[in-house]
Each structure stands twice: as structure tokens, then as C-alpha cells.
Amino acid sequence: MFKLRPVINNLNDSFRHKAFPVRSFWEYVNMMFNKPDPERIKTLGPDRACAEWVLRNGGKIIWSNGKKLEDYNLLPPEEQSVPKIVAIDGSDSSISHYGFPHLSGCTMLEKIILHNNKYIDDRAMKGLAYGDATLKYAQVSECVNVTDVGLKEIKFLKKLNTLVLFNLTSVNNLDECKQYLQSQLPSCKILDREEQVKC
């Protein structure tokens, strides 16, 4: 099983100097690697399908038994059941809003990290609501396509107790966003990178 990021890097070189609707092409490729397959979710269960989505796009997961997995090829055979997912690390990956419906049905998912991912945008922030029933920890950092409007969508994650935000270059007023989110999520601790390290 290959991953999206190496494919994109190779094709970027091929099309760099050609007249080609690159943005729409990559949007389509990303959609195909991210979009849920309802039949597969029904057959294999939401946690297996979600794990496939994250790993296929270069992310990492943690199972409820504490084991970490970052290689798609190390997933157990389809006929073998898998534990529940408790954490997703989408750092440096190509997961995008198209795949966020996978979060629905993952009944033990408590943590998600979205760091240095150019595919994460305001639509993805809104898509986090698919995990609103269980998410307690979220990090959004160095995602250049997240704006003030998108960041404020996190207000729907009512069970969050920790939110880490930093280096969001398209957010014009991060302090104002933090204040707004704090007013909407009074029980949530909102941290920046330095405070995260201290914790």
C-alpha cells in the first residue's frame, strides 16, 4: 500500500512546468485518498476504517491497548478484529476534511493532533465535529490554511479539556480566537507551544 504524500511529490515534479489545472487535480487526488467508503465502514467497523484512512495518508494512530501504528502494511488481516482508536496524529500527513466523517463511530477517540498539514483548512476544522462525542484533546498548529473563521468552529467540541494552538500563520488574531473559544468552552485549557511543553 502506497501513501499519498510521495505520490504527490513525484507528480509535482512531472507537472511543474506544464500548463495543467494542478489545484483541481490535487484536490481530486486528495479526495480519493480521504473519502470514506460506507460499505467498508459497515463491513469492517469504524475503527478499522478510520485507521486505514489515517495510515493511508501518512498519519499515525494509537489503539486502546496502547500500541502505536504508523505503517498501513502492519494493519492486521481484515478478518481479524482491531482495538478501538484512542488517538490520531495527523502531523506531516495528507489527511483532509474529506476524511473527517471517519471520526464518527470511533467511540474511544479522545485525542487528535493536526500539525504541519497543508491539507487541513477551515473545512477540516468544521469536520472535527464528527468527533465531538468523544474528543477531549485537540492540537492545531502550523496548518497554513486554517483561518480565524475555521478555528472558531472548534467551539462545537464541547468535551474538550485541552486545546493546543500555535504557529497558525493565516489566523489574523489568534488571541481573539482563543478568547472566543474560551468563552464557548469554559472548561477547556487553551495552550500555546511553550505551555504545552511545560505540561
Describe the fold and architecture.
The chain has helices at residues 4-15, 22-34, 38-44, 46-56, 122-127, 148-151, 174-184, 193-198; strands at 60-63, 68-69, 85-89, 111-115, 137-141, 162-166, 189-191. The protein is an alpha/beta fold and 199 residues long. A 7-stranded mixed β-sheet has the order 2-1-3-4-5-6-7. Strand 5 (137-141), helix 6 and strand 6 form a beta-alpha-beta unit. Helix 3 packs across helix 4. Mean pLDDT is 89; it is low at 11-20.
Question: What would you say about this model in short?
Answer:
The protein has 199 residues and is of the alpha/beta class.
How would you describe the shape?
globular
Mean pLDDT: 89
First-residue to last-residue Cα separation: 37 Å
Q: How many DSSP helices?
A: 8
- Which strands sit side by side, in order, in the main sheet? 2-1-3-4-5-6-7
For the sheet with most strands, the description reads: 7 strands, mixed
Rg calculated over all Cα atoms? 17 Å
Taken in chain order, the helices and strands follow as HHHHEEEEHEHEHEH
- Given as residue ranges, the uncertain stretches (5+ residues, pLDDT < 50) are 11-20
Q: Report the helical percentage.
A: 25-40%
Q: Any key phrases for this structure?
A:
single chain; 199 residues; alpha/beta; 7-stranded mixed sheet; 8 helices; 15% strand; globular
